[in-house]
Amino acid sequence: MTHLDAVQLIALAAALGWASGLRLYLTVLLVGIAGHWGWVALPPGLQVLASTLVMACAAALAFIEFLADKIPLVDSAWDALHTLIRIPAGAALVAGLVSGWAGDGGQAWGIMAALLGGGLAAAAHTAKASTRAAANTSPEPFSNIGLSLMGDVAVPTMLWLAWAHPFVFFPLLAVALAVMAVLTWFCFKFVRALVRRVRRPASA
């Protein structure tokens, strides 16, 4: 069983928050599997994720999300619903990870970790939702499927890098966040312009 050093802890905290904004249930499942099989020593706040019941529930929801995320418009409806779920869940996961190693300052570190996790989850979720909404304006379904598959691959890859190669993970996360910020900005501009174009004939 691997215990985390400080660098791994920070990397995993960032990875959990970011991944929760993209694939919450897959993230919960992967953390649970890692703890259940003894690959990582989960802190007390996350040990419940290694239970058979939680893993089974996470696996079922991850499968539903996998399918829903491949269907145009259904993916955007799913994202809209999970605006209320992914961000607080990301905050809770990161707080649960950090609190076990925080010692006497556990409460303060837990709050800081929750803010970090929630912020990263919000950034990832916003970029995902806005990009998929823009992609849904295209009549072909392949862009949606391609974007969805990228998310399916990115989450386990980034979680593994955070644990095994944190110094590779940090620059990749910085690049991912920069790309997400640019995509969010362009997608919001695109959707706003599309809404204006649709409203113009109606008002004429």
Report on this structure.
By secondary structure, this protein is mainly alpha-helical. The chain has one domain. 80% of the residues lie in helices and 0% in strands. The protein is built from 7 helices and no strands. It has helices at residues 6-22, 24-36, 52-68, 74-99, 106-135, 142-164, 166-203. The radius of gyration is 18 Å and the shape is globular. The termini are far apart. The chain crosses the membrane at residues 45-68, 80-102, 108-124, 145-163, 169-191. Pfam families: DUF4126 (PF13548). This is DUF4126 domain-containing protein.
Strands, helices and their partners?
Layout lengths: L5 H17 L1 H13 L15 H17 L5 H26 L6 H30 L6 H23 L1 H38 L1
Total DSSP E strands = 0
Distance between the termini: 68 Å
Q: Can you write the helix and strand succession as a string?
A: HHHHHHH
Mean pLDDT: 87
**Whole-number count of domains:** 1
Largest sheet: none
User: How does the overall form come out from the CA principal axes?
Assistant: globular
Strand residues, percent: under 5%
The radius of gyration over CA amounts to 18 Å
The structural class is mainly alpha
Helix content: over 70%
| Tally of DSSP helical segments | 7
Poorly predicted runs of 5 or more residues = none
Provide tags for this entry.
204 residues, globular
